[in-house]
Amino acid sequence: MDKSTSPEIAYVYLGGITDLNNYPKKINIVLAFGKPSTISYVKSQILNDKVVFPNIIHPKANIDFIGFKHGVGNVVNVGTVIGRDVTIGDFNMINSNCIIGHDVQMKSFNVISPQVAVSGNVKIHTNVFLGLNCSIVQGVEIEDDVHIGAKSLVLKKAKKGRSYFGIPALWVNK
Protein backbone atom coordinates (compact mmCIF):
# COMPACT_ATOMS: atom_id res chain seq x y z
CA MET A 1 0.00 0.00 0.00
CA ASP A 2 1.18 3.48 -0.85
CA LYS A 3 0.54 6.64 1.13
CA SER A 4 -0.87 9.67 -0.62
CA THR A 5 1.68 12.32 -1.55
CA SER A 6 -0.91 15.08 -1.38
CA PRO A 7 -0.48 17.25 1.75
CA GLU A 8 -4.21 18.14 1.84
CA ILE A 9 -5.53 14.58 1.69
CA ALA A 10 -4.32 11.77 3.89
CA TYR A 11 -5.39 8.36 2.60
CA VAL A 12 -3.92 5.02 1.68
CA TYR A 13 -4.07 3.46 -1.76
CA LEU A 14 -5.45 -0.02 -1.32
CA GLY A 15 -4.48 -1.48 -4.68
CA GLY A 16 -6.49 -3.51 -7.14
CA ILE A 17 -9.21 -6.14 -6.80
CA THR A 18 -6.66 -8.84 -5.88
CA ASP A 19 -5.38 -6.70 -2.99
CA LEU A 20 -8.94 -5.99 -1.87
CA ASN A 21 -9.88 -9.67 -2.00
CA ASN A 22 -6.86 -10.48 0.18
CA TYR A 23 -7.35 -7.59 2.62
CA PRO A 24 -7.19 -9.12 6.13
CA LYS A 25 -9.47 -6.72 8.05
CA LYS A 26 -13.02 -5.44 7.78
CA ILE A 27 -13.17 -2.55 5.32
CA ASN A 28 -15.97 -0.33 4.02
CA ILE A 29 -16.09 0.18 0.25
CA VAL A 30 -18.32 2.48 -1.81
CA LEU A 31 -18.88 1.71 -5.49
CA ALA A 32 -19.70 5.02 -7.15
CA PHE A 33 -19.57 4.67 -10.93
CA GLY A 34 -21.73 6.33 -13.57
CA LYS A 35 -22.49 3.15 -15.52
CA PRO A 36 -24.70 0.38 -14.07
CA SER A 37 -22.75 -2.44 -15.73
CA THR A 38 -19.49 -1.15 -14.23
CA ILE A 39 -20.96 -1.19 -10.73
CA SER A 40 -22.26 -4.72 -11.28
CA TYR A 41 -18.97 -5.96 -12.74
CA VAL A 42 -16.77 -4.50 -10.01
CA LYS A 43 -19.10 -5.86 -7.30
CA SER A 44 -18.93 -9.33 -8.89
CA GLN A 45 -15.13 -9.26 -8.61
CA ILE A 46 -15.08 -8.50 -4.87
CA LEU A 47 -15.11 -11.86 -3.12
CA ASN A 48 -13.70 -10.97 0.30
CA ASP A 49 -16.34 -11.43 3.02
CA LYS A 50 -14.61 -8.75 5.11
CA VAL A 51 -15.68 -6.10 2.61
CA VAL A 52 -18.73 -4.16 3.77
CA PHE A 53 -20.82 -2.00 1.43
CA PRO A 54 -22.47 0.75 3.52
CA ASN A 55 -25.28 2.96 2.32
CA ILE A 56 -24.04 6.52 1.93
CA ILE A 57 -26.81 9.10 2.36
CA HIS A 58 -25.91 12.78 2.23
CA PRO A 59 -27.16 14.65 5.31
CA LYS A 60 -28.95 17.12 3.04
CA ALA A 61 -30.98 14.40 1.31
CA ASN A 62 -34.62 14.41 2.40
CA ILE A 63 -35.93 10.89 2.91
CA ASP A 64 -39.36 9.99 4.26
CA PHE A 65 -38.30 6.96 6.30
CA ILE A 66 -41.87 5.69 6.71
CA GLY A 67 -41.88 2.44 4.76
CA PHE A 68 -38.38 3.09 3.36
CA LYS A 69 -36.54 -0.18 2.67
CA HIS A 70 -33.08 -0.52 1.21
CA GLY A 71 -30.33 -3.00 0.49
CA VAL A 72 -26.59 -2.32 0.68
CA GLY A 73 -24.11 -0.16 -1.19
CA ASN A 74 -26.53 2.59 -2.19
CA VAL A 75 -25.41 6.21 -2.61
CA VAL A 76 -27.92 9.06 -2.19
CA ASN A 77 -26.50 12.49 -2.99
CA VAL A 78 -27.24 16.02 -1.78
CA GLY A 79 -30.66 17.54 -2.41
CA THR A 80 -32.38 14.28 -3.30
CA VAL A 81 -35.93 13.79 -2.04
CA ILE A 82 -37.27 10.27 -1.51
CA GLY A 83 -40.96 9.83 -0.74
CA ARG A 84 -42.88 7.43 1.47
CA ASP A 85 -42.92 3.65 1.01
CA VAL A 86 -39.92 3.50 -1.33
CA THR A 87 -37.90 0.31 -1.72
CA ILE A 88 -34.45 0.28 -3.28
CA GLY A 89 -32.25 -2.77 -3.75
CA ASP A 90 -28.45 -2.84 -3.76
CA PHE A 91 -25.77 -0.65 -5.32
CA ASN A 92 -27.92 2.16 -6.69
CA MET A 93 -26.30 5.53 -7.42
CA ILE A 94 -28.83 8.33 -6.95
CA ASN A 95 -27.19 11.61 -7.91
CA SER A 96 -27.85 15.16 -6.73
CA ASN A 97 -31.25 16.85 -6.64
CA CYS A 98 -33.35 13.87 -7.72
CA ILE A 99 -36.96 13.30 -6.77
CA ILE A 100 -38.07 9.74 -6.11
CA GLY A 101 -41.85 9.70 -5.55
CA HIS A 102 -43.94 7.59 -3.21
CA ASP A 103 -44.25 3.81 -3.59
CA VAL A 104 -41.31 3.51 -6.01
CA GLN A 105 -39.69 0.09 -6.28
CA MET A 106 -36.12 0.16 -7.55
CA LYS A 107 -34.10 -3.02 -7.85
CA SER A 108 -30.27 -3.06 -8.03
CA PHE A 109 -27.32 -1.61 -9.97
CA ASN A 110 -29.08 1.50 -11.28
CA VAL A 111 -27.64 4.94 -11.97
CA ILE A 112 -29.97 7.91 -11.56
CA SER A 113 -28.34 11.05 -12.99
CA PRO A 114 -28.71 14.51 -11.42
CA GLN A 115 -32.13 16.19 -11.41
CA VAL A 116 -34.11 13.11 -12.42
CA ALA A 117 -37.78 13.07 -11.40
CA VAL A 118 -39.41 9.69 -10.79
CA SER A 119 -43.11 10.02 -10.05
CA GLY A 120 -45.03 7.78 -7.68
CA ASN A 121 -45.71 4.08 -8.07
CA VAL A 122 -42.89 3.53 -10.60
CA LYS A 123 -40.99 0.24 -10.95
CA ILE A 124 -37.34 0.40 -11.95
CA HIS A 125 -35.71 -2.96 -12.56
CA THR A 126 -31.95 -3.74 -12.74
CA ASN A 127 -29.06 -2.10 -14.65
CA VAL A 128 -31.07 0.97 -15.60
CA PHE A 129 -29.51 4.32 -16.50
CA LEU A 130 -31.69 7.42 -16.19
CA GLY A 131 -30.06 10.39 -17.92
CA LEU A 132 -29.73 13.93 -16.64
CA ASN A 133 -33.01 15.72 -15.96
CA CYS A 134 -35.28 12.99 -17.37
CA SER A 135 -38.75 12.38 -15.95
CA ILE A 136 -40.68 9.16 -15.39
CA VAL A 137 -44.45 9.60 -14.99
CA GLN A 138 -46.75 7.90 -12.49
CA GLY A 139 -47.12 4.12 -12.68
CA VAL A 140 -44.51 3.44 -15.41
CA GLU A 141 -42.31 0.35 -15.41
CA ILE A 142 -38.67 0.47 -16.54
CA GLU A 143 -37.44 -3.05 -17.32
CA ASP A 144 -33.85 -4.39 -17.04
CA ASP A 145 -30.93 -2.91 -19.00
CA VAL A 146 -32.78 0.22 -20.14
CA HIS A 147 -31.07 3.53 -20.97
CA ILE A 148 -33.16 6.72 -20.80
CA GLY A 149 -31.52 9.74 -22.43
CA ALA A 150 -31.08 13.17 -20.89
CA LYS A 151 -34.21 15.36 -20.65
CA SER A 152 -36.44 12.52 -21.87
CA LEU A 153 -40.03 12.14 -20.69
CA VAL A 154 -41.08 8.53 -20.15
CA LEU A 155 -44.84 8.12 -20.50
CA LYS A 156 -45.12 4.34 -20.89
CA LYS A 157 -43.31 1.08 -20.16
CA ALA A 158 -39.65 0.98 -21.21
CA LYS A 159 -38.87 -2.51 -22.47
CA LYS A 160 -35.84 -4.61 -21.57
CA GLY A 161 -32.53 -3.76 -23.22
CA ARG A 162 -33.74 -0.70 -25.11
CA SER A 163 -32.66 2.93 -25.22
CA TYR A 164 -35.22 5.74 -25.15
CA PHE A 165 -34.79 9.42 -25.95
CA GLY A 166 -36.99 12.48 -26.43
CA ILE A 167 -40.28 14.07 -25.39
CA PRO A 168 -42.08 11.74 -25.28
CA ALA A 169 -39.32 9.14 -24.94
CA LEU A 170 -39.25 6.83 -27.94
CA TRP A 171 -37.28 3.67 -28.50
CA VAL A 172 -34.10 4.21 -30.51
CA ASN A 173 -33.02 1.07 -32.32
CA LYS A 174 -29.21 1.12 -32.22
What does this molecule look like?
The chain is mainly beta and 174 residues long. The protein has a domain at 2-52. It has two helices and 23 strands. The protein has helices at 17-21, 36-45, and strands spanning 2-3, 12-13, 27-28, 51-52, 56-57, 62-63, 69-70, 75-76, 81-82, 87-88, 93-94, 99-100, 105-106, 111-112, 117-118, 123-124, 129-130, 135-136, 141-142, 147-148, 153-154, 163-165, 170-172. The protein has an eight-stranded mixed beta sheet with strand order 5-8-11-14-17-20-22-23, with no helix packed on it. The longest helix has 10 residues, at 36-45. It is globular and about 50 Å long.
Key words describing this protein structure:
9% helix, mainly beta, 23 strands, eight-stranded mixed β-sheet, six-stranded parallel β-sheet, 28% strand, single chain, 174 residues
Q: Helix/strand/pairing class, anyone? A: mainly beta
Strand fraction equals 25-35%
Counted by DSSP, the helix tally is 2
Strand order of the largest sheet: 5-8-11-14-17-20-22-23
Percent helix, as a range, is under 10%
Q: Summed up, what is this model?
A:
The protein has 174 residues and is mostly beta strands.
Blueprint (SSEs and pairs):
Elements: E1 2-3, E2 12-13, H1 17-21, E3 27-28, H2 36-45, E4 51-52, E5 56-57, E6 62-63, E7 69-70, E8 75-76, E9 81-82, E10 87-88, E11 93-94, E12 99-100, E13 105-106, E14 111-112, E15 117-118, E16 123-124, E17 129-130, E18 135-136, E19 141-142, E20 147-148, E21 153-154, E22 163-165, E23 170-172
